[in-house]
Write a structure and sequence with these properties.
With 463 residues, this protein is α+β, with helices and mostly antiparallel strands. 29% of the residues lie in helices and 24% in strands. The chain has two domains: 8-240, Glutamine Phosphoribosylpyrophosphate, subunit 1, domain 1 (4-Layer Sandwich), CATH 3.60.20.10; 256-314 and 324-434, 3-Layer(aba) Sandwich (Rossmann fold). It has 17 helices and 23 strands. α5 (134-143) packs across α6 (149-159). Bound molecules: adenosine monophosphate. Adenosine monophosphate binds at residues 1-6, 248, 286, 289, 351-360, 392-394.
């Protein structure tokens, strides 16, 4: 369940006569990574055309829209605004016309020094049209004194810090690059003669392509009709793959950083059952993100699994609110308790994470109203105590439940009979990852990069 929303997803293809349609399908498979806007830029005979809009992929594109994007190469993006507001101007890819021709860029992640670079560029006269950090990359490319587009991109991406998976389309090339820490996923795939790059393997498989390999951290791939050229233009850094992608973001059928997501989530539930058992009659999951861990908990504990919460898949972007107040209406709109499973029962409810705590609090209340006699909450990640600076949308530290309260107070706040989280060591064990390879700053406070501080107040001195 998501009270907050996701970050972004990118998809690109070269060498397919129907590139925009394949990109549309790929973006649909990445829809879980961003629901606020979607865009595609396609190339035909050296000309780039774009179509973008606010909303879900299938709301933005219809058959005529896809037909208006002919060509054999395309890049696309689904967006949730981790940086910049939710306006059409901020929907990616960004397509610009500059002195060297057309260039389209899209990006997944957050640039930790975007503000600083923007101040610098503005001081030299650059005019920004959007509030998104991705625009900084375009300006850096244009301002670079390198001669070729590839070298300009290397120059620009060498200056940005933080998390970035970038796709760029210009001339006869599609460029895919991943930051040296490897925070966010990016994979290379093949479909017939075409090459694909996508945030997650599930998107490559959805278009009936095959996954070739991960784009390595710090790698830049150049895809054109000659095939794929791999460069290593950026200084190496320790690998820091986001552990929260395993917990929540990635689709369960994805292979993430070389690990399958679904079995990891089942193992998270198994570890929870072993370490934090509860005397209960039924195990239920919070759909969809808590379901695999709930199955793991049930399997390991021997307590039967039940569908105790039903999720509505038909909630659109606007919904007519009831005129009479209905308690917890927002959560009920998405989740309904299933009385026949929970009434009169001691219930273990498994979710992937607690952020502010509002969802869990309402779920516990709903389950009790539906007749649950005990509610034991199990969370398949550690207490989230810090915000993410690398592309995941989390609130300020002060709003995070586990920053505000210790475990006994969290239990009291949620009104649960018991609450238990995985420890960071247990989570690493479940995803088969060593601590040294992952970014788990939101759980441990170990931030690999500090966000750059901006100087000045940005105000123009008039005289
Ligand atoms: P909260 O009500 O703020 O505690 O949110 C927790 C719920 O949001 C859980 O059910 C999670 O599955 C989900 N969630 C966690 N992180 C995110 C995120 N960054 N974006 C959207 N949903 C999230």
């Amino acid at each position: 369940m998501g009270s907050l929303r996701h970050e972004c997803g990118v998809f690109g293809v070269v060498g397919d006569a129907d590139a925009a349609r394949i990109t549309y399908l790929g973006l649909h498979a990445l829809q879980h990574r961003g629901q606020e806007g979607a865009g595609i830029v396609a190339r035909q005979g050296g000309v780039l055309r774009e179509l973008k809009g606010l909303g879900l992929v299938h709301e933005v594109f219809d058959e005529p829209a896809i037909r208006s994007l002919p060509g054999d190469a395309a890049i696309g993006h689904v967006r949730y605004s981790t940086a910049g507001g939710n306006t059409l101007a901020n929907v990616q890819p960004f397509l610009v016309q500059w002195r060297e021709g057309q260039l389209a860029v899209c990006h997944n992640g957050t640039l930790t020094n975007a503000g600083l670079l923007r101040d610098e560029l503005e001081a030299k006269g650059a005019i920004f049209g959007r509030s998104s950090d991705t625009e900084v990359i375009l300006h850096l490319v244009a301002a670079s004194d390198q001669k070729t587009l590839i070298n300009r991109l290397v120059d620009a991406l060498g200056r940005v810090e933080g998390a970035w998976c970038v796709l760029a389309l210009a001339g006869d090339k599609l460029v895919a690059a991943r930051d040296p820490w490897g925070f966010r996923p990016l994979v290379l795939g093949r479909r017939g003669d075409a090459w694909i790059v996508a945030s997650e393997s599930c998107a490559i498989e959805f278009v009936q392509g095959t996954v070739v390999r991960e784009v390595e951290p710090g790698e830049m791939l150049i895809l054109d009709e000659d095939g794929v050229t791999a460069l290593r233009p950026f200084p190496r850094k320790p690998r820091r793959a986001c552990i929260f992608e395993h917990v929540y973001f990635a689709r369960p059928d994805t292979t993430l950083f070389g690990r399958e997501v679904y079995p990891s989530r089942v193992r998270m539930g198994q570890v929870l059952a072993r370490e934090y058992p509860a005397r209960a009659d039924v195990v239920i999951g919070v759909p969809d993100s808590g379901t695999p861990a709930a199955l793991g908990y049930a399997e390991e504990s021997g307590i039967p699994y039940g569908i105790g919460l039903l999720r509505s898949h038909y909630v659109g972007r606007t919904f007519i609110e009831p005129t009479q107040r209905i308690r917890d209406f927002g959560v009920r709109l998405k989740l309904q308790p299933n009385k026949s499973v929970v009434s009169g029962k001691r219930v273990v409810v498994v979710d992937d994470s607690i952020v502010r705590g509002t969802t869990s609090q309402k779920i516990v209340r709903m389950l009790r109203q539906a007749g649950a006699v005990e509610v034991h909450l199990r969370i398949s990640s550690p207490p989230m105590t810090g915000p993410c600076h690398y592309g995941i949308d989390t609130p300020d530290r002060e709003d995070l439940l586990a920053h505000r309260f210790d475990l006994p107070r969290i239990r009291a706040f949620l009104d649960a009979d018991s609450v238990a989280y995985l420890s960071i060591e247990q989570l690493r064990e479940a995803v088969h990852e060593e601590g040294s390879r992952t970014c788990d700053a939101c759980f441990t406070g170990n931030y690999p990069i500090q966000p750059a501080q901006r100087g000045g107040d940005g105000q123009l001195t008039l005289f």
